[in-house]
Amino acid sequence: MEVKLAEYAGFCFGVKRALDTVYEQIKNGKNIYTYGPIVHNEEVIRELTEKGVRILETKEALVELAKETNSRETSVIIRAHGVPEEIYHILEQEHLECIDATCPFVARIQKKVEEESRAGKHIVVIGNAVHPEVEGIVGWCKGPVTVLGDLAEAQEFELPEGGEICVVAQTTFNYKKFYNIVEILGKKGYNSTVANTICNATEERQRSARKLASEADVMIVIGGKHSSNTRKLYEICGEECAHTYFIQTLDDLRLELPKAVRLVGITAGASTPNKLIEEVQNYVRINF
């Protein structure tokens, strides 16, 4: 039986950059907070928590932090997913040090929607409305904005006559669905600007996962339960391979292998540490 890892799996550039930022600040000996979990992987967050990194979840928590701590000894790190513009204003007003670990690809979308909305365009974000990246993007818009998460919502979308739209995507959105939604919007005849802002790392991981899943008898997808990009990988692999498993760590792995398995494929979300991927690979190779 062969065990094969997808060509692209595990940490992406934006995640590695964000985590490097946190670890660098830990060395400085300050009180370290992140606004929201720095990345969507429970094992990574647990490790950072053990090192004293704490998570702030609300605007009110920022204000309370400023009252309770010495701002010179405290740093607030912006998560890789980015935040609404308002959060930067609060940090400035409360004199809290802000260290921005927003993924550069997300920051580019924020800048794009800010500029296009200032120009009077209706912003359409293709993505999950409750995902922090999308909430952050929406928070940079200066005018009307709509979030579309699926084909049905795209079909129902209507714009006042003569309006212009600018379409962007959550960086981790399923690229096939993105193009399908864009096609639906195109048929409505709107004067539109479309920016495919799905990052290369997402496309590479989705394509390589689909290719491997189409060849594999069993697929294992490793990642955090709240990770959007990992859930997309699970969805894609499930379309190609009936025996697809979603796990966070090796402890979750309960393989029920069909007879005559030739190939077990493994892929992992962009926030999954290499050590977790290696643990799963080695376990499957040794035990099956």
What order do the helices and strands come in, and which of them pair?
Layout: E1 2-5, H1 13-27, E2 31-35, H2 42-50, E3 54-56, H3 59-68, E4 74-78, H4 85-93, E5 97-100, H5 104-118, E6 122-126, H6 132-138, E7 145-148, H7 151-156, E8 164-169, H8 175-187, E9 191-194, H9 200-215, E10 218-222, H10 228-240, E11 244-247, E12 263-268, H11 274-287
Helix pairs in contact: 5-6, 9-10
Content-based structural category: alpha/beta
- What's the Cα radius of gyration? 21 Å
Number of strands: 12
The shape is flat
The first-to-last residue Cα distance is 8 Å
Largest sheet: 4 strands, parallel
Strand content: 15-25%
Secondary-structure element series:
EHEHEHEHEHEHEHEHEHEHEEH
How are the strands of the largest sheet arranged? 1-12-10-11
Helix content: 40-55%
Mean pLDDT: 94
Number of helices: 11
Low-confidence region ranges:
none
Task: Describe the structure in your own words.
With 288 residues, this protein is an alpha/beta fold. The chain is 44% helix and 19% strand. The protein has helices spanning 13-27, 42-50, 59-68, 85-93, 104-118, 132-138, 151-156, 175-187, 200-215, 228-240, 274-287; strands at residues 2-5, 31-35, 54-56, 74-78, 97-100, 122-126, 145-148, 164-169, 191-194, 218-222, 244-247, 263-268. The strands form three sheets. A four-stranded parallel sheet has the order 1-12-10-11, with helices on both faces. Strand 10 (218-222), helix 10 and strand 11 form a beta-alpha-beta unit. Helix 5 (104-118) runs parallel beside helix 6 (132-138) and helix 9 (200-215) packs parallel to helix 10. The radius of gyration is 21 Å and the shape is flat. 41% of the residues are buried.
